[in-house]
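Suppose you are handed only two things: the residues of a chain and a line of SMILES describing adenosine-5'-triphosphate. What would the bound structure be? This form records exactly that question and the answer produced for it, so the two can be stored side by side and reused later without any lookup.

QUESTION INPUTS
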Amino acid sequence: MGIRLDGVSVSYGGTTVLDSLDLTVEPGEFTALLGPSGSGKTTALRTVAGFVRPDSGRVYLGGRDVTDLPPYDRGVGMVVQSYALFPHMRVERNVAFGLRAQGVPRNEVASRVTEALEMTGMGSYARRYPRELSGGQQQRVAISRALAIRPKVLLLDEPLSALDARLRAEMTDELARLHRELPDLTVLHVTHDQGEALTLADRVAVLDRARLREYDTPRALYDRPRTAFTAGFVGSANLLPARLEGDRVRVCGLELPVSPEDLPAGTADGAGLQVCLRPHRIVLGPAEHTLRGTVTDLSWRGSVHHLTVDVDGRSVTVELAGHRTPPGPGGAVELGFDRDDAVLVPAGEEP
Ligand SMILES: Nc1ncnc2c1ncn2[C@@H]1O[C@H](COP(=O)(O)OP(=O)(O)OP(=O)(O)O)[C@@H](O)[C@H]1O
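ANSWER OUTPUT
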């Protein structure tokens, strides 16, 4: 069952939180809603669930207009950050909750509860109370509870953000597995963690200040961002001011050849642009194009070195894997990159 938001606007006390949002999630698709704090992600999700009523616009589930339906009539499962398990109920009763509310016959409830707990690897914890479970286990139970009603749409509101880094990575793999095992389930997942969004989602919707900035596959957003905002928010990016001059782009004293399809739509000759260079696509030493600069900072983060280099008064970050001893502060370096690694985006709009 697909999800469609059609021109959905929501405001609170005169502040626009969603500004005419159009978003389509295809049946069986996993879409991540990614954006900074306050960009409207949770509000968008709660609008789909039916907890927020849009001021204007319509919400469709499976092609049916559900804008006027209450949450319990929408047939969606939802998991929130705080687990929201009932503390006085055993795991099995927590998971059975939605089924009972739907009037599912008793004997069927038991088998559906077992099925839902097994999906998240919690089959042997049915008789425990939530307080007898770790945070990760509680979140697995919360996911089981959402899945027990066999929803066609699953809404996830930062379900992993209360977990520590290792558990979060483990649960991210779990969610990926669920998505593979339940190919018909449509998932909308709110997160501000780009790693989670890039790993899990078929498509990522990037929200910024109440508006949808870009909506595309993780690969496309990462390799070919269309805005400086996306470039900086999805992965890290060096954004260098540039100018279009005929069939060249001038950046930090270099001239890069461009063809019309490299340019943001509507770029006029002489227009200001930005060149997006990913820190890990830059190599030390000359390449197709080479910037020259001086190292100002060097830090080691486990598997990679981060080098900050001053190029004509601009700070350029470089990520080096496999270098035992990169040049330290004060060292003169050449930074090489290939033309294909420089993506042109419009000027302004940094995250
Ligand atoms: N019930 C409410 N009443 C008033 N303002 C609200 C309400 N819910 C959300 N807001 C405001 O709407 C804006 C968007 O909130 P929302 O929770 O959708 O953002 P978000 O992108 O999910 O942020 P975060 O990542 O911090 O959860 C925020 O400025 C928030 O303060």
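WHAT STANDS OUT: The longest helix spans residues 165-181. Residues 12, 17, 35, 37-43, 192 surround adenosine-5'-triphosphate (CB under 6 Å).
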